[in-house]
Design brief:
By secondary structure, the chain is mostly helical. It has a domain of 31 residues. It has two helices and no strands. It is rod-shaped and about 65 Å long. The two termini are 36 Å apart.
Amino acid sequence: MSDIDLPSTDTVLKTAASYGRDLLERVLVTFLQAFVGGVVITQPLDGSMWYAAAAGGVGAVLALVKGLFARLRGVTNSASFAKGV
C-alpha cells in the first residue's frame, strides 16, 4: 500500500479560511456596487429602493455562485478564476 501525501490540518484550515474571506469580500462588494448602481438608476426614474436592493442581491448571488464554481475548478485559496491569485 502506498503512502498518501496529504497536507497538514493547519494548511487545510488556513486555505479554507483564506478562501472564505476572499469569497465573502467579493460577495459583499458586489452587493454594494450593484445596490449603489441601482440607487443611481432608480432615483431619477422614480423607482423603488426595493428594486435597487433586488439588483444588489442578484449581483451578490451571482458573485457567490461564480466564487464557488472557481473553487470547484481547482483554485483553492481564491474565489477568482485567474491563475496565481
